[in-house]
Fold this protein.
Amino acid sequence: MERVDENIRAISKQSTGIREMGNRRALRDIENLVRAPLPYACTVTKKQLTEKNVASHRPMTRRFAASLAQKEQGPPVVNPPTSVSSVATSHEADHKSISDSPIPMVEELEDMSGESEVEMEDVSEDNSLLDIDSADAKDPLKVVDYVEEIYKTYRNIEETSCVDPEYMAMQPDINERMRAILIDWLIEVHYKFELMDETLYLTVNIIDRFLERESVPRKKLQLVGVTAMLLACKYEEVTVPVVEDLVLISDHAYTRQEILDMEWLMVKTLQFNMSVPTPYVFMKRFLQAAQSDRQMELLTFFLMELCLVDYNMLRYRPSLLAAAATYTAQCSLKGCKFWTKTCQFHSTYSEDQLIECSRLMVDLHQKAGTGKLTGVHRKYSTYKYGCAAKSEPALILLE
């Protein structure tokens, strides 16, 4: 009888506890609701790579295999293993996973078979292809098994996200300058609302695809901008700004019903096609291929957002813009032209294919702090964004 009473009291206590919790916001309390994510956290940085992962990126040579075997077995080995099987056997003896051992390159296999006597250590590491996904092999969210297929699909369908670079000529009441003012303002709104990075790129893409198909009067251009951001938020964000917030941020220039009516018109015009590859998805991959650090990531995104404002950059497809921004950032930080075989392989672009776009980016970088449209420069001049705007432009690309 006492046990029954105890159970009743326990249940009553739990019920009281539930009532006391009230309307708690569980996601926010456990910090699952990401409001202001660290920029570009999905890319792999050098600091995230462990010592073991760094070793797995190094080309396998007989000398390197010998040093690994000595480290695993303890005492020096007179005859170091010269084949993949012998290296694997030494690792199995210590119950090591095969995925933990470095993967031999094609040149090393030729060297082991006796067909070539060239030592891989004579070859610069920058000239060899790195396995950029090895560090993410155990992370199911990185989908390493088919990540290449995903980006192959992106490249195949990225044309659907492109617009006619001359579409503004068909607009009777707006021009390139008005578009630039709108995008510059939206970048500040995006920053104020602390939205995801993906949201900004999709917002600009929706605006351009809609303006390519519909004539918009000057007084409705800002309405198109805030509505495009609302649509992008619904697609990318965990929590979406309410329509009243957009009415407020536009200084009550439009009513709630006008925003909803424009939303209906835009999704109808675009046939509800919001799933298009923007430069953002390609930048994540290319920065990973470049083994970037935070400084390079921020500089790359600074250059890319300058391109969002400039109407002339619509002539380039998203993947080329992303590759050129990555290349330009590397050249800026290193002070020389720098584009590895790994970057070229994953981006599918050579330096010659990027140089024209990169030079335009350098020009935008030089002028970013001048004129009236300085929203991007002010944003990336803050400590939150590493003062990336204050980096030296890659003037070497202009020579």
Summary: The first helix runs from residue 2 to 21.
